[in-house]
UniProtKB/TrEMBL annotation:
Name of the protein described by the UniProt record: Gnk2-homologous domain-containing protein
Entries under InterPro entries matching the protein: GNK2, GNK2_sf
Keyword Repeat: yes
Annotated organism of origin: Eruca vesicaria subsp. sativa
Entry keyword annotation includes Transcription: no
Length: 249
């Protein structure tokens, strides 16, 4: 999928507001524009604009399996949604913030999507397989801090000649391997608890994502399934495009 799809917006009301047409506001507009432009060149990027109390820190992250055109479309959509939905707030997620946040482990807010279709009984001990396989993928991904797309890993495993389990994990490139692994393990715990009976699901946090999908590679592709979503609110803004995660603080 290549179309941008706005998913959720989280605005941190407790972070305070900025004054319209202030220096911070000017810096923010320039900052969002720069991030949007950079998303046509890279899948992840961070930037700092301004000085002292007028400083804006920002980043975006697109998953490793999407092209730059899709990434750029997502980040552009996210910057528009931020301006529209979180007027005056100093902290959001695509994300931007007046606080430096890149190296900090954060698990809230998070949001998830899952299919409305449940897994068949013929899949057997699916929950256990999902937990074991994604745990393995998380361990492998934490070793990829210096790869071309840091911490991104996709694994596809065939089970009982019945179905394929596709597992995707990714952290922001600025986390150290230990915090990346912790973020992914906590996200996996959430997805196991909420969605291990579903055909596919994905969960995003400010610093990592976990996703799984089941399908039969021996059959023609099915049309896109319907989906449902849930979230745990915190303070930030999430705008996502299909397989893309875009953050700014």
């Amino acid at each position: 999928m290549s179309e941008s799809d706005h998913m959720e917006t989280f605005c941190n009301k407790s972070s305070g507001n900025f004054i319209l047409n202030s220096t911070y506001h000017t810096n923010l507009n320039a900052h969002l524009s720069a991030l949007s432009n950079q998303s046509s060149l890279a899948k992840y990027y961070n930037l700092t604009t301004g000085l002292a109390s007028d400083t804006v820190h920002g980043m975006f992250l697109c998953t490793g399996d999407v092209n730059r055109t899709t990434c750029n479309s997502c980040v552009k959509t996210a910057t528009i949604e931020i301006a529209k939905n979180c007027t005056n707030n100093r902290e959001l997620m695509i994300r931007y913030s007046d606080k430096f946040f890149l190296l900090t482990l954060e698990t809230q807010p998070n949001t998830s999507w899952r299919s409305t279709d449940l897994i068949p009984k013929t899949f057997g001990k699916f929950k256990e397989r999902l937990s074991d396989k994604m745990g393995e993928v998380i361990v492998r991904s934490s070793m990829l801090s210096s790869s071309f797309t840091p911490y991104y890993l996709m694994d596809t495993t065939r089970y009982d000649n019945l179905y394929d389990l596709e597992s995707i994990v990714q952290c922001t490139s600025y986390l150290d391997p230990g915090n990346c692994s912790t973020c992914l393990k906590l996200a996996l715990q959430e997805i196991i608890e909420c969605c291990s009976d579903n055909r596919w699901a994905m969960i995003w946090t400010p610093k990592c994502l976990v996703s799984f999908d089941t399908y039969d590679s021996s059959l023609p592709p099915l049309p896109p399934p319907t989906r449902s979503g849930c979230n745990k609110l915190g303070g930030m803004v999430l705008a996502v495009a299909a397989s893309v995660l875009a953050f700014l603080l």
